[in-house]
């Protein structure tokens, strides 16, 4: 493994960490509705566990209401039950074939709790990135110890990995601040 391989591997893994953080942040409910909120809700569809998006159209009616339009007549009750039983705290209402999912307004106390959850999720991502940095630096030190690269190359590699780490952590901070602002916006 060369220094270029170490750097490339580090960049790929940190990009995955950022994507994982973005995915986790979309799961955290704000006062606003978005269609991706129901992506984590799954239901039984003829013996298979599938996400709601595979059995119905999920769209927004307005800023606080999601509409779910099942593709089959009999699926409405199952979808409604799956949403109600999910840990999202949503209460769907059926109107014929259409299921309306109103987003309850968040209390100030709940908003503060959610910002703590967002910060914790961001901190977990930072820890993951720091662990990746440690692994990359260990690889560089091992190469130097085995005399495959010079000490100068090792030092350059460690400095480069640190700059990438700093950039990634700044991006994580930016994502966390954006989500906090979104949650605290009334």
UniProtKB/TrEMBL annotation:
Tagged with keyword Transport: no
This protein's UniProt keywords: Cytoplasm, Protein biosynthesis
Compartments (UniProt record): Cytoplasm
Matching InterPro entries: Ribosome_recyc_fac, Ribosome_recyc_fac_dom, RRF_sf
GO molecular function: ribosomal large subunit binding
Keyword Protein biosynthesis set for record: yes
Principal cellular location given in the protein's record: cytoplasm
SUPFAM superfamilies: Ribosome recycling factor, RRF
GO cellular component terms listed in the entry, alphabetical order: cytosol
Stretches assigned to the Ribosome recycling factor domain: 21-184
Any single biological process term in GO: cytoplasmic translational termination
HAMAP family on file: RRF
Protein role: Responsible for the release of ribosomes from messenger RNA at the termination of protein biosynthesis. May increase the efficiency of translation by recycling ribosomes from one round of translation to another.
Family stated for the protein in its record: Belongs to the RRF family.
Name this polypeptide is given: Ribosome-recycling factor
